[in-house]
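Hi everyone,

Forwarding the result from last night's run.
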Amino acid sequence: MYIIVAIKGKIFDVNGVKNSLSKEAQMARRRHITDPVASYLLGVLQAEGVARFNEEHRKHRERFPWGSFPNFSDADFSRMNLAGIHLDRTFLVNASFKKADLTDAVLTNAIGPYAYFAEAQLANTNLSGGNFHHGDFEKAHARGMKLVGTVLAGVWVKGVNFRGCDCRGTAFRSATNTMNLCKVDFSGADLSGADFSCCELAGSDFSEAKLIRANFSCATATGALFIGADLTGADLRGTSLKQIIARNACFENADARDAKFNEAFLRGASFRNADIESADFRKAKLDGACMEGARTDKFSCFEDAELPEHFSLTGGNKEVKS
């Protein structure tokens, strides 16, 4: 059977419908799907499984390479075994994946604001390039997840472990409200170029994480762990880093103007060529730190701090040498 349907003036080929239309219609009604292409694909998923779904979805992408996204918005995939499924280039707005198994799934470039992933299995799942702002990932199992360039602004991530995940360029910042990422484990993750600006990060763990050119401007990270983290070239302007533990961390070439390092443990850290004008290091432990070439001004404060040996300010260019 060869079927062509029209949706809002666009032509969609859903070749291969066979005799599963009644099952497909039931599945579509149960999952609130009105898009005929998505409805057909869900019928395939129910009747023939993930492998066949992936094949039909691949054929659809090849027929419409200029961008026809099957619309699975409001679909209910809760508790389903979707390991290895390909939902790339789909609409998943408000879709529910609660407790679903999405191990090794591909959701690249998917549009899924407000999607629900609570307690889902997301091990090695690829969400790169997708937009899942204000989604719910509470207690999702995210080990090895790939989030390159993903928009996660406003998401709820309580109990999520991002340890070792690839989060390069991930946008965590929410334009509408302060993003709560307190006590989240990012240790060992690649967060180069990630945007944490204006986020609440108190107590979070960034130990051994790559944070090269990450944006923490105006964020609050009181008591966070940055042990051995690489923040080369990071934007720390106006960031509250009070009481952080950043032993042997690298802040080289970072822009830390107006940052607050009060009572921070920075032993062995490197601020080589960093801009620390108007930064506050009161009561910080900086013994063993490298401050070579760091730029300061008259408002940089080191009152009661434990300073590196031979610490001195040069007069003309206001650099610190150690």
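The longest strand covers residues 4-7.

Cheers,
N.
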